[in-house]
Amino acid sequence: MDFKRIEWIFLIAFIALDIFLVGSFTQQARLLSVTNTSPTSSTALVLRNIKEDQITYGKLSDKRQWGYYVVSPETDVFRNKPARLHDESWTDNNQELTATFATAIHVNVKHPTRVLNSVIRTRVINGKQYRYDRHLSTATQVVYTQTFKGIPALTQAGQVRFNVRNGIVTGYTQGYVKEPRRLPKKQRMISAKRALIALYQYNKINGSSTVQWVRLGYTKLLAANQHVIYVPTWVFSIRSKATGNVTYRQINAFTGAVMNKD
Q: Which of 5, 146, 204, 206 reaches 20 to 30 Å from 246, CA-CA?
């Protein structure tokens, strides 16, 4: 892979976007700057508004970290590999594989990973590259994610999803990010608390709701010249206090912009 070429493609694709976002985000950051001696700062006022709107959340960090874009070739990632699957039937659409076990697997409903940890290592292509994700998993779906330098892929492109019904697993769906590479230029990311504030200011979180969890992970930003670019993203799980419905929201960890869930 011509990594230098990818860097140039990436920079060209983002130059126009950066001009807009850097200006708007810098202005927002200035308005939201926090000082320890200013209890009436914009950030404090926004957090008070969040509280008044009956939006609850746990302790969120103000810490800012460094992050990187990740790029991966957009190719048929399962080419020839399904031939290794001897105990299941499968179909794939170049980017995602769906497999059905010849014999269904029985799991403990409360502790499905006791069985599935072994299944993913021994019966799933590149299964050792995935880790169980308790936040994304539910009673009916157990999710394992790839990680890029310790940060999980919070996109279906990098996940294995086992469907569970009454303790029975009949198969799984797998996405795989092939040969992920970090672009060398690192950038500062916004904090989890700043991401919440951005979400509120963009009117993407309703009143009378609870932030169940907030996580930093990679999601798809765009595809260009047969490559996919992933960006660090703050992902929020938000539960309505009135209906119990759960929605997921995403904030670009570099720019503070709202992202569509992929």
A: 146
Q: Is the dihedral of CA 39, 43, 45, 48 positive or negative?
A: negative
pTM of the model: 0.83
pLDDT at 61 over 70: yes
Which pair of structure tokens corresponds to residue 10?
């990436």
pLDDT of 21 strictly over 80:
no
Cα distances from 3 to residues 17, 201, 222, 226, in angstroms, run 22, 38, 17, 13
d(CA 112, CA 230): 30
- What is the per-residue pLDDT for 19? 38
More confident residue, 85 or 102: 102
Length of the chain: 262
CA–CA gap between residue 179 and residue 5 (Å, rounded)? 16
Q: How many CB atoms lie within 10 A of CB 253?
A: 29
**SS3 (DSSP) at 29:** helix
